[in-house]
Amino acid sequence: MKAIVLLSGGMDSVTAFHHALNEHEVVAALSFDYGSKHNAREIPFAQLHANNAGVRHETIELGFMDRHFQSDLLHSGGEIPDGHYAEANMKRTVVPFRNGIMLAIACGFAESVEAQGLVIAAHSGDHAIYPDCREPFMAGMATAMREGTYARIELLRPFIDLDKTAIARRGAELGIDFSTTWSCYKGGDIHCGTCGTCVERREAFLLAGVPDPTRYLVTPPLPSAPES
Amino acid sequence: MKAIVLLSGGMDSVTAFHHALNEHEVVAALSFDYGSKHNAREIPFAQLHANNAGVRHETIELGFMDRHFQSDLLHSGGEIPDGHYAEANMKRTVVPFRNGIMLAIACGFAESVEAQGLVIAAHSGDHAIYPDCREPFMAGMATAMREGTYARIELLRPFIDLDKTAIARRGAELGIDFSTTWSCYKGGDIHCGTCGTCVERREAFLLAGVPDPTRYLVTPPLPSAPES
After folding, report:
1. Which tens digits make up the pLDDT trace of A5-62?
2. pTM higher than 0.80, yes or no?
3. B69 interfaces chain A, CB cutoff of 8 Å
4. Which CATH number does the domain housing residue B131 bear?
5. Binding positions for Zn(2+) (chains A, B) (predicted)?
6. Residues of chain B contacting residue A141, judged by C-beta atoms under 8 Å apart
């Protein structure tokens, strides 16, 4: 079907984009600049992958989120915490209802370009502290998108039963150069190696047995996941 | 409960705002400037009502909608059609998934200001041509908002069983000066009297037996609703 892809420039969405190129007619890829510290690092990679595939790429500016929303992920927030991605202190990096906002905008965009599907890279490991990554949220949004559009737009979640390790494997199968993807929430010159999303990234490559091409500032031993 | 209100400056949302002031602790009212021809006319009225009530008012700028979305409601679209609000040609004024986008952003805003509820003035007469006004859409969004936030934010639809005539009556009971509300999609100096939303407004006051304080450019006999 004609589909658009949410493409942040991270390893999950870049893999979902290349996966979707095999499955669908991808008519556009969307990035969102919502004022996070790492938007400026990840969006150029989103654009690179879209351009290389000859797919239209648009960046949607959401400046109001940095001005009005509370989150340490944003320029207006505090320091990015270090530790395991699934730890409670990572809650400070949650941007309220971010996935709801991106999906809603992408849904309206999809209807405007006559797409029938919308691909998001949400996966099974995303759920620990992010309510807007979990299946009950996704099911509600899927209903809202289908019922709220003439085209009855479908929310496609190809990775919902995979974890990040499986995504690293899938990306490697697809021949993705992961050095052209960005994860680090701190948004420095290179990946820090210690923030929650760097830890998650390093762990995924390690468990997948896929060489990690990322340059990290430091690579201390990986912290364990918290008891669940 | 602590609640925020979607306040466009139209007669429905202004009535919902005053209704909510009686029912909840209203901590903010949100307007959205998405590039419609009438945003510049309606948003000042939203601000006026919020200011008079001592409630924080914010206008969220969504410039990307005018650039990327297809609708005659937008500056980038064609002429606003005349006729009855429920006629098929009014589909040209639908902005794809507009309510989904506004609700999602308002939900994230609500979580950031520690509100538990979000009021929208959706009503039973809104459904004819707008998929993102109907109950199956609203039910999906309500699920997504509840499941996608820590606060389990509630989507409040106080007027969902009312029609616009009943809202005009409710607004009159609340003592609202409807001359400080805006409907006309054309966004001229005064209401045109002939576009779909002017027809709907005139019809509501007439059927409610509430004096219509609106200055219209012309007031030809009201067209009939299409056979349903």
Report:
1. 999 999 999 999 999 999 999 999 999 999 888 999 999 999 999 999 999 999 999 9
2. yes
3. yes
4. 3.40.50.620
5. 184, 192, 195, 198
6. 140-141, 144, 148
B120 in contact with chain A, both atoms CB, cutoff 8 A? no
Host domain of residue A15: 2-78+97-183
Q: How many folded domains does chain A comprise?
A: 1
Pairwise CA distance, residues A183 & A105, whole Å = 23
**Lookup result for tokens 């047995």:** A209
Sign for the pseudo-dihedral over CA of B124, B5, B60, B11:
positive
Q: Are B99 and A144 in contact (CB under 8 A)?
A: no
Q: Please tell me the distance in Å from A122's CA to the nearest CA on chain B.
A: 13
Q: Summarize pLDDT for B121-138 with one digit per residue, the tens.
A: 999 877 667 888 888 999
Residue A223: the pLDDT is 84
Asked if residue B226 is part of any domain, the answer here is no
A212 vs A205: CA distance, rounded Å: 6
Specify if A219 maps to a domain.
no
What pLDDT digit, counting tens, does each position of B33-53 carry? 998 889 999 999 999 999 999
User: Would B224 be classed as within a structural domain?
Assistant: no
Contacts of B104 in chain A (CB under 8 A): 97, 100-101, 103-105
- Average pLDDT (A83-91) is 77
Mark the ranges of chain B whose per-residue pLDDT is less than 70.
127-128, 227-228
Within 10 A of B150 (CB to CB), how many other CB atoms are there? 12
Name the residue in chain A with its Cα closest to that of B149: A131
Interface contact B61-A60, CB threshold 8 A: no
Q: Which of chain B's residues have a Cβ under 8 Å away from the Cβ of A96?
A: 107-112, 149
